[in-house]
Structure prediction request, 281 residues.
Amino acid sequence: MTGSRKERYDEGVSTGAARPKAEGGRGVPESRDACVSERQAIVELIDVRKVYPLGKTEVHAVRGVSFTIEKGEFISITGPSGSGKSTILNLIGCIDTPTSGVVKIAGKETSSLSDKQLTALRHKTLGFIFQSFNLIPVLDVYENIEFPLLLGKERPDKAEAREWINFLIEAVGLEAYRKHKPSELSGGQQQRVAIARALVCKPDIVLADEPTANLDSKTGKSIIELMKKLNHELQTTFIFSTHDPEIVAVADHVIRLLDGVVVEDVRRNGIRQGEGAGSRA
Ligand code: ADP
Prediction:
């Protein structure tokens, strides 16, 4: 990434939310390691429970889950089907609310926010990637990526927005497909568009629910590699759910669920939550 583009991303000039400056006021640190070493919690779940009513019974989808995700991490939430992965992503994405417990996103307790504040948090802090891509069929690649920018309160500066969108198109390797509609793209290409779209408002966190589920394994791996590259370059926190062990292997922080509880929470440097400096067991 060129210096000017990176600075622009850091500053969030007109095209979206300003990214918080790292301590010392120099903007985002040069390396992801530097960022992670700050150990700044961007997501915190404290004894979170989610119970869904189901007819005359209840489903206990999440049963007392606590964990911390630090800024700049590349996290896999894994576990078998029905273990609570999507429920947890929906809670982090402020799409759903916990039955009890605390969910904090960028230091804000989500249950204390009004609908308006939640909408603003979702728009400025969170980007979403879905397993079925969810692109708008009548819009081309450029327009699909641009779309979230047009939903914000602030009107982005056109020239800066164009430069940023073109940068993202290049970053996801779709320069030759700028004018293509989703139906003219492969599944992997559509997911690349969805990744660029998730990043267009410069969120601190990108959430991806089974982003490779509808892709063959080779394409799935290339999508995860692309997400990791962008995680490294932009220092955006990526949180994705998967049950594919090959994809889990790429993550630098793995949270494993079984029947709605965390059975493993490990960082690739070997530090488990609760053992390392600055952790919050
Ligand atoms: P995963 O993403 O790991 O497959 P989910 O979070 O989707 O798991 O689901 C966890 C449990 O909660 C499952 O038993 C599922 O059937 C149940 N569940 C999820 N959403 C709802 C809902 N809206 N209503 C009732 N039960 C639900």
The two ends are 36 Å apart (CA to CA). Residues 1-37, 274-281 have pLDDT under 50 and may be disordered. The longest helix spans residues 217-234.
